Model the fold of this input.
Amino acid sequence: MFKLISHAVLFLAGAGAGVYWGVHHPTAAATVSDTETAKIQQAVAAAKQAVLQQVVAEQNSTTANGAAPTAASVSHLNKYQQMLQSAQAEFNAATVKVNGQ
Done:
């Protein structure tokens, strides 16, 4: 019980200190917020890229096993490859934001 109360008090103190600091240092808080947003965008783009790479690899392995590719599977593969390219572009843009270039 003491542990729960101490965690709650420390959480409230930390949140209060963060709000106080953000109010009294708005430009620095905006910079921190922008950096965190860029890092989140980078992580989302990386996750999207990983999922799409897995889907494209599965599509390629399905057609490589001797099965004749159908028009639908080819169009799906092309769509996923385009989505992968856009995810890579998002990742690169987010990386540039994080690195401040």
